[in-house]
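protien #1 (seq + structre)
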Amino acid sequence: MAQARTAVGVTAQDSENTRFILLISLVATIGGFLFGFDSGVINGTVDGLQRAFDSDSVGTGFNVASMLLGCAFGAFFAGRLADLYGRRTLLIVAAVFFIVSAWGSGVATSSPEFVFYRVLGGLAVGAASVMSPAYISEVSAAHYRGRLATVQQIAIICGLFAAFLSNYLLAKFAGASTEPLWGGHEAWRWMFWMEGAPALLFLVALLFIPESPRFLVVKARRERALAVLTRLYGTTAGTAKLGEIEASLAQDHHRPRFSDLISKATGRVRPIVWVGIGLATFQQLVGINVVFYYGAVLWQAVGFSESDALLINVLSGGLSIGACLLTVVLIDRIGRKPLLWIGSLGMAASLGLVTVAFATGSLDAGGKLVLSDNMGVLALVAANVYVIFFNLSWGPVMWVMLGEMFPNQIRGSGLAVAGLFQWGSNFLITWTFPMLLAGIGLAAAYGLYALAAAVSVVFVLKFVHETRGRELEQMEG
């Protein structure tokens, strides 16, 4: 009955409260935009990094993947620190890190210096990746929580799209990413500096949103929590929601800690934690960030010019946004689980076609893979179909589920562990791709990603449980 009362209260709220929830959710999603921009900007800078730092394939792979080390630690510690200091506070710290990283990555004169600033940016990305969806989930109601949380993935893809478009235009104006642009600085450096503007906007906007009411309840700041809940849902629904949150914490009311991830009944890690780890890991094992981070290198490797390769990235970004918009329509109607297994099937099939296309290629005198016209078209179309299926399913849905699937007591800790595995897997996939490319070739590498997508179908059907329409206070683990 609590859920019914809450649903009625939310649907009866006035338009001002609705606009307020939408507004603060959009502020939180700027973190997602920066997550996407910071992840995608590296795509157009690989040639510049290789030339500036004289790095080989292993060194280049580490320069590109170094941010992901920061992401892993940022996601892991952000969950715990957010339980201590608040979701909003951690997002403010992340905004500052975004600004410093954007500036430092562009001025770096050596690999160690570049890696330092990228790791700093990675800490911000990792924190934003888990805190933005958690914040959105904790201020929105069950019947539209999925749609609002999916906006986070749209923001991520918009950030990627903006980075791809910025990279393309800057390289086009300069003539190439390695050529000087404004102030005598190479275009690839300006690609990093472009991130400074949205990062500053994020910092300023965060100063005007409230702290998560569920965090305030955990910290025994009842009056502040009630004020926020009233602002979000109205007096009646806000008071009812406060009671639900307090009741969900009353059975085991202590400060959240990592040991809560261990079931007192069995002495083992809670099943919901393993599901979170599986979701986070499979999202990366399908190889999506190879497309996002190495897209320009990939398409140049099969015969496209740098300019055309960067333009293909823009196309992929646009398709990704369209797929995410479709997810917004579907996620609260058909649920999370169907989208996941449909996406897994689609990714396995499209990655299989990419593998077939690359397997038909031959190497020219310069060691570059050459495809026939038909196979080149097949690879291009199949790769973009893969991007569509990912952004229709695992891209947004994984983040939605991680933000909502854990009970209140373990949400911060559960997100920390899942985030660590997500970004750790991301790092391994990104770092190893140049070595796979040089060692076993594009076809075999994409074959591994296709296999992971096929296995993820089984994982979803067997282990993932639907969360659509359930209040956060009803989550079990």
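ok now protien #2
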Amino acid sequence: MTHREHQDDDQETDLRTAPDKKREAESETALPPARPRPWRWYGAILATLIVLGGGGWWLYQQLTHVVVTDARVAADIVAMSSRVPGWVTVLEVTDGDAAQRGRVLIQIDDRESRLRVEALDAQLAGIARRREEIEARIALTDRQTQSRITAKQAAVRAAEARLAAAAAQLDLARQENDRAEKLAPSGAINRARLDQTRAALETAKQQTLSAQADLENARAALAEAEAARGELTVLRTQLAELGPEEQRLRAQKAQAELDLEDRTIVMPFDGVVDRVFVDKGEYVTPGQRLLMVHDPERVRVEANVKETDIRFFRPGKSVMITVDALPGRRFEGRVTRVGQSATSEFALLPNPNPSGNFTKITQRLPVRIAVQQDGGELKPGMMVELEARADD
């Protein structure tokens, strides 16, 4: 078949189908328009209800609740410092470790402190030995001097008795001599008798002088014995001086023990270690910060609340807390303290407005909220949001 024949056949086919196409087009235009499907209406109504419900809930929340987004978790973070100098010999913890109360965190070289304590213990032991020695000398001196004084007192009484006897003999010899001297001129007695009475009188005088001397010697010996007892006073004074010296040594020992104790840094409470600032082998100085710790069970929330909303955060008010780091979790807190001054009062550069130009800015007051938690989920520095009911 030639190309010309093919073209003729196509033209005949087009002529035959043209009326059919015309009839189909007329039939289509004669049909009624299609109706929208019902599920589209239902979807539109449901979407409208969701939007209206969400908007209503948002409006209800705005009217009945106060939300504060400028809030953070806070805690009493304790910065532990060194009171003594030395090298760090033991480092038991690192950042983030949990530690119980009393656990050793850092140990500083304590060799010199231990030697100082031992030296003071030796001095205190020497004080005790000296006290025992002086007390023994006091007891010995007391016994010796007491017996010596007793003996000298007896000697004095004996000398006094001999002196009294000698004095009596002297009186008798003087009386006999006086009678002899009176009778001698008349020849009543002979010369020999007179000489005897005179000799007896002289002898009695000498005996009296001797007895007087013996009494003085006895008294002097007694005074010497009594003076020897004065050594007891000296010994007791030395014993009393040991008291202040011992007290001074004990104070030095207590200071040395305190220095030794300060070389062991222990955990002050059950908590966690936030930051360690030293390494093992590092030399630290007094006052140098070593580490920071806090108690995870004693955290709180601190917020700066607008002055227009502060009336909804009175002490004792219950608030709900949501944490950015814990989606879906809600914590209940209670307002414990409301600041008495706005935060602007403590600004480094306060604005006294001397020029008279004024722009009213809502001020903020600090609010502290207590919150209970288990497991330390709330960590200092976390951002939180507060929600309080405005109709309470």
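The domain at 111-261 is CATH 1.10.287.1490 (Helix Hairpins).
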